Structure formats: structure tokens, C-alpha cells
């Protein structure tokens, strides 16, 4: 990919939001919603290149995140409203939406609150909300993910299984992300705490999953220590038109580990 990083700015009711786009302008755009404590710079550039080969891909820093102005809303519905306003101001009309982790939570809420904006929905490494049964997060997850700053070993634990193949893929992905030019600021402590509040107070969508009629691709790594793959399975069973894909020897960041396979899956899903 080019080292020329073109950051665009959009004036919104919450202040200016930073955004950028990749890929050709034609066709239905794909909007990306980022993970907890992630900015638009934290997408693996190799993943962006793969999914933007045939379509316009839009990513942005939500209110109070990264380069963007404003404050992080303290509810998932509020964060979804930021995405909806961005879509409206960009004149997207309707878009496909891919949300990873926290972004998958926001994507589900967006699809419930503004279904007219979402043509197809991809929920990656995420959850439909609190689920009491089945596997739960690894006991170390809360401690690691709430550190003031996460290092490579933290991300390897959170995002990849402890196998030689997965760890090697994880190190390569982290290196690609870290060596991008013109990286923006990290998520602040105040924004981090607002995200925590939003997540902890979200009731989930399982009681309303049948109100998500759009085609849905639900994907995860089979060994996700943060949001166990069982949660993806539960969501896929409740949504009316959902396909479930699980990747072996992969975890929360399966989409950066199995880039070619998942990009092909995304392309099939969006063009079928």
C-alpha cells in the first residue's frame, strides 16, 4: 500500500471526525467499526489492502477517539449514533458494515437502530451481549486489556492462540500496524473509561436478534480468549439470515491472521 496517508475531516454535531477511504469508488461502500481502544490506524494494512481490492472501504476515528474531536459516548447506542451521522453526512445512503470486537457490538446496535443504513452486516470477533452459559473470557483478559498501555506480548495473548503458527502471524501483523507512516494518537484514558462504561451497560441484542433481517456474516477464531466463539455461534442461531465461520488455530484477531481466506469470505458474502 502507498505510504501516502490521506486523512479527511468531517464536521459533525460532536466535532470533526477523522476518516479515510481505500479502494475504488464504485459499488456499495464497506464501513469499518473498530475494536475497544483501537483507532483507524489499528487495522492491519494488509487486511485493508485485501478487502479494498474491489470496493470502497471507509474507516474512521469515532468521537473522542484518535485524531477525532469530541468525547466518547458512554453508551453503545450513542457510539452507534456517531457512525450513523457519519454515514448520513458522507451521503452513503446504505452501506455494508464490518464491525470487529467492540465494533461488532456497535454494528449490531446500528443495524437495530438504523436498519435502513445497513445492507449487509459482518460481525467479527464479537458478541451479542452477556451470555451466562458456555465458555467465558480467560481470567487474565480483564487485567491485561485494562492496562494503561498494551505491549506486543499483551496483544499476542489477547488476540492469538499460543501456537507457533498463530504467534508468528500475530507478530507479523503487529509489525505491519506499528510501522505504518503518520500514526495518530492513541486512545486516551478518559475515552477508554467511557468505552468501558458503554460496554458494561449494554444489554445486548439477543432479545431483539430476530429484528436483524439483513444478511449477516458472523466470524471468529475458534480460540478467542476475549469473546469466546460460542457467543458467535449463539448470535448466528438467533439472527434470521446469518452464516457462521470459525477459524481453527486462530483467536480474536483471526481477520489479521487469515487475511486471504477471510477477505475472500467477505467478498463472497458482499457480492452474493
Care to count the β-strands?
Answer: 8
Percentage of residues in DSSP E strands: 15-25%
* SS-derived structural category: alpha/beta
What value does the average pLDDT take? 96
Helix content: 25-40%
CATH superfamily: Alpha/Beta hydrolase fold, catalytic domain
Rg, Å, rounded: 17 Å
Secondary-structure element sequence? EEEHEHEHEHHHHEHEHH
Walk me through the structure.
- This protein is an alpha/beta fold and 272 residues long.
- The protein has a single domain (8-271), classed as Alpha/Beta hydrolase fold, catalytic domain (Rossmann fold), CATH 3.40.50.1820.
- It is built from ten helices and eight strands.
- The chain has helices spanning 45-51, 76-89, 102-113, 141-145, 152-159, 164-178, 189-200, 229-238, 254-257, 259-271; strands at residues 8-12, 15-22, 30-33, 57-60, 95-100, 118-124, 216-221, 242-247.
- The protein has an eight-stranded mixed beta sheet with strand order 1-2-4-3-5-6-7-8, sandwiched between helices.
- It starts with 7 loop residues before the first strand and ends with a helix.
